[in-house]
Amino acid sequence: MASCAGFIDVNGVDLPNKEVSCSSGTNSLSQNTCIVKNDAKHMTDIYPIRFHDGVVEPATAAARYVLKTTK
Prior knowledge:
The chain contains 1 helix and 3 strands. The protein is α+β, with helices and mostly antiparallel strands.
């Protein structure tokens, strides 16, 4: 499947301009072990995404975790 990579920066040019990361587990989409703590070290402002077949979805497990669990 061909896809195009990109990212969403939720606060624009303001800092921290850092990619969201797992506080525990693996940042692999094939595994479901990533957990992202709601703190400044892990819950940051850049979320990798990929576009394919008219779909936009998280490109990392950390981005997927935030999408599925944050309210």
